[in-house]
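tool_log.txt
---
The assistant was asked to compare two proteins side by side. It first ran the structure predictor on the initial sequence, then on the second. Raw inputs and outputs are pasted verbatim so the downstream comparison step can read them without reformatting.
(1)
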Amino acid sequence: MRKRNKVVGTTSYINRETGEIKEMEVIEADIYEKDSNFYKLFLQDFISALDLIANKKTKLCYWILTNMNRDNMLLYSYRQIADKTGISYGIVADTMKTLQEADFLCRQSSNCYIINPGILFKGTYQRRSIALSKYYECEQGKKLSSEEKRLQDIQKSIAKLQRQEKRIQKGLDMAKSFEESDNA
């Protein structure tokens, strides 16, 4: 928060103890919140300037910036993105995966991505706070999904080991029965 003081004029005050009249400056204090560490970037002009040297992945990133909605969401599937940008499906899939790993965006569903408001946001700080909350919910859901996947992988490994144990036990039983028949 920042505080700005501004002299708005003078007024007369009477000192109660002495009865003396004094002229005093009247100061108006304005307390406000201000975002800092931001650059103004005129996106269309910036993209046009860099478009000359950009590769397909960079062009896809620019496309994402210009096609996200006011809630910091991109509402397109990989196929729709590929069709609209003219970039191959493989490059779109690879780039989107890389952007997710880089914490630039989070996949909420197959055709809904939330761009990290900690990196990029257009709007008021109140709307940014709401978008940050949604982004962190998405990230939390992704972490739960990865934990569930890890649990499933462990369960598959246990089942595989149990099957191997049964085969080994069956082999041991067969060897034991052969040994008993040879001794008889």
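(2)
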Amino acid sequence: MKIKVLRQKKQHTAPYWEGFDVDVTDDMTIAGVLDYINYNDDIIDDTGKKTSRIGWECSCLQGVCGACAMVINGVPAIACETMVKDLKGNEITIRPLQKFPVIHDLIVDRSIIYENLKKINMYIGEYTPAQNKKFKEQKKEHEHQYETAKCLKCGLCMEVCPNYVDGKNFFGALFANDCYLVSSRNQSKAKEVRKSYEEHFGKNCSKAFSCMTVCPMHIPTLASMAKMNRQNGPGR
């Protein structure tokens, strides 16, 4: 199969496509394909020229860290969870996420995600006895809180979002989910979080919901939005 990778030596150098002819099997993941290409000391492209190893990130290779987020055949996805058998055609194109600065090849700088969360102190914090009691009474929220907490911070939701540009004003779907999680578990931070939610998500989200389509953890962001919007409603 022909594998085409959009490569880039350094952050400020021009990107270029490079092809590889690879013997793949249906049970391989895209992470496995990249690992296969990089395995040999001498890596040869589809023109017969020697080239360098493809730069990409991985950690768990089990779909729970989000490090191998990239765009595969035009769709933002996790490489270790994307099977060759599920892709159509005789060619696979792989490029880095485009909403984040490229460091090298498929490796991007997603630090803006964490910088934005730090900027507004998005952490659950400590409970007071009263908050602990109230939290235990909110059993109906526990399932959604658990689902929301699965977020990998992989950036796929931002990559596909038509409203997310550079993270300076609109923070994306993962921010909405974190807002719900923190405000629902720490009442002392709820007012501050609701204000940040409206400023950095609520007033700019166009409700495309493409974020839920690509989320590898299938987080129900729409439910988080509905809960936050109710919190931000009249009388709150």
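---
observation on (2): The chain has a mean pLDDT of 91. The beta strands are 2-7, 16-21, 43-44, 50-51, 69-72, 75-78, 91-95, 102-104, 107-108.
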